[in-house]
């Protein structure tokens, strides 16, 4: 069904670990050439880049653009277009988190979270969309969160950014619909990523709880399934949205959250 993905070209922000790296592997398995992006250990990034390329027979390149710097974001897009000829798929996944009461929040942290989690999406889309419109094909997938649909305490910046991502997704979908370009959001529940592990430590401190208590509370209060969301749960949806089969789906925030937003 998804043979049409073979030979497509994708840019995935925040793809050196966690969900973004899993998405890179999932699309590479479908035959998609990838531009990775993100921070981390240089040797580990290169190891993952080479491994994905070797295992799946696709071209995988890396760009370390900082998602707080608009010019570097624009250069990421133009560099990927120059290297691969075009961008068919844009996945905005870069994100950071900070858990704290709003009256104790650091202003610089607020600005950084909004910049990386929301504003970077604006810059990548603005840069990539003209080429997609010209070619009459494009798939934009923004990784929002269940927190783009509902709120939790102590996550004011993250909730604000992810709600903004959902709104941006809908607007871009409407503007691009007549050009063969779709724009959707994936809204995961709790996935055991490095970001969540750090978040649980902060949450334990904010709530004066142990990390195991926080983990149990997350699942009991949120997921009806009482299970964490896996990368595989998300990759299947991503592949569908990026394929020709997903051409009729646009402007929607898809919750993959173990029933959390069904409450």
TrEMBL record:
Keyword Signal annotated: no
Enzyme class, spelled out: oxidoreductase
EC numbers on record: 1.1.1.30
One MF term in the entry's GO annotations: 3-hydroxybutyrate dehydrogenase activity
Pfam families: adh_short
Keyword tags: Oxidoreductase
Keyword Oxidoreductase: yes
Family: Belongs to the short-chain dehydrogenases/reductases (SDR) family.
Name of the protein this chain belongs to: 3-hydroxybutyrate dehydrogenase
Source organism of the structure: Parvularcula lutaonensis
Organismal lineage: Bacteria, Pseudomonadati, Pseudomonadota, Alphaproteobacteria, Parvularculales
């Amino acid at each position: 069904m998804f043979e049409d993905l073979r030979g497509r070209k994708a840019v995935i922000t925040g793809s050196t670990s966690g969900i973004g790296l899993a998405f890179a592997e999932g699309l590479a398995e479908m035959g998609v050439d990838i531009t990775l992006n993100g921070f981390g250990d240089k040797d580990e990034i290169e190891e993952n880049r080479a491994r994905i390329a070797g295992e799946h027979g696709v071209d995988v390149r890396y760009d370390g653009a900082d998602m707080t710097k608009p010019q570097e974001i624009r250069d990421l897009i133009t560099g990927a277009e120059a290297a691969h000829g075009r961008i068919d798929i844009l996945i905005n996944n870069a994100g950071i988190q900070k858990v704290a009461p709003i009256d104790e929040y650091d202003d610089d942290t607020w600005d950084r979270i909004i910049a990386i989690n929301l504003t970077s999406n604006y810059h990548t889309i603005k840069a990539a969309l003209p080429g997609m419109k010209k070619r009459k094909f494009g798939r934009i997938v923004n990784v929002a969160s269940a927190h783009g649909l509902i709120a939790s305490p102590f996550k004011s910046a993250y909730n604000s950014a992810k709600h903004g991502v959902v709104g941006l997704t809908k607007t871009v979908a409407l503007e691009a619909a007549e050009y063969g370009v779709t724009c959707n959001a994936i809204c995961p529940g709790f996935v055991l990523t490095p970001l969540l592990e750090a978040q649980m430590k902060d949450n334990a401190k904010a709530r004066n709880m142990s990390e195991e208590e926080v983990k149990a509370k997350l699942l009991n209060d949120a997921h009806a399934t009482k299970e964490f969301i896996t990368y595989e749960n998300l990759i299947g949806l991503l592949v569908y949205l990026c394929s020709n089969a997903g051409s009729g789906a646009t402007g929607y925030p898809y919750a993959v959250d173990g029933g959390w937003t069904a409450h």
